[in-house]
Amino acid sequence: MASTTSSTPLSISSSSTLIDGKASRQSASASSQCVTLPTLPLPPVQSQNRAWKTTAYCRKITRNVVAMATGEAPAEVAATELPEIFKTLQETWDKVEDKYAVTSLVAAGVVALWGSAGLISAIDRLPLVPGVLELVGIGYTGWFAYRNLILKPDRDALIEKVKGVYGDIIGTSKKEIN
Fold first, then answer.
1. Mapped to the 3 state alphabet, what secondary structure does the chain carry?
2. Are 44 and 54 in contact (CB under 8 A)?
3. Which of 42, 45, 51, 127 has its CA 20 to 30 A from that of 67?
4. Where do the TM regions start and end (predicted)?
5. What is the pLDDT of residue 9?
6. Residues with pLDDT less than 50, the chain
């Protein structure tokens, strides 16, 4: 059983309307088969863009000539200097004795962070669990505020406790922090 397919040509009129080849053979009531195409935006003016690029290039050359005349480094060379943080990181990395252990710890930290993000997203997809955890968080926040922030002696005790933990981490005594 052979089937024959016939393709109908499509034509575009000057008013940017696509007309089906069958539509021209049918009556005027079948004009609902026309599709209007959107008009294209005008292209950008090339002369203004070119003038801006030329002006910027001339300013760049002028800066470089002035920099060379005064004995300074050109703008391209000055821009390639590393910021201070990279210099500090490089000095710190050079001081590290066991680079293999540090690299392994960083890789393990990245894997742990990736795994914990996956675990949190899996828990978040479970029904009811995110809502229950949100209620637990709101309840704990209210309890903490009631217990530590309402009365002045409780606030003072909390501040002293935070300063003590901060001092333990930094390695200073409580008297030096005040």
1. CCCCCCCCCEEECCCCEEEECCCCCCCHHHHHHCEECCCCCCCCCHHHHHHHHHHHHHHHHHHHHHHHHHCCCCHHHHHCCCCHHHHHHHHHHHHCCCHHHHHHHHHHHHHHHHHHHHHHHHHHHCCCHHHHHHHHHHHHHHHHHHHHCCCHHHHHHHHHHHHHHHHHHHCCCHHHHC
2. no
3. 51
4. 100-122, 128-146
5. 52
6. 1, 3, 13-18, 21, 23-30, 77-78
Query: What is the per-residue pLDDT for 47?
Result: 57
Q: What pLDDT does residue 63 have?
A: 72
Helix axes 99-125, 129-148, angle to 10 degrees: 110
Instruction: Give the residue extent of every domain in the chain.
Output: 139-178
Give the per-residue pLDDT at 56. Answer: 73
Token output for 11: 């034509």
Distance from C-alpha of 166 to C-alpha of 177, rounded to nearest angstrom = 9
71 φ/ψ sector (left φ>0, alpha ψ -120 to 50, else beta): left
pLDDT at position 86? 86
- Hunting for tokens 């030096």 — which residue is that? 176
- 21, 33 in Cβ contact below 8 A? no
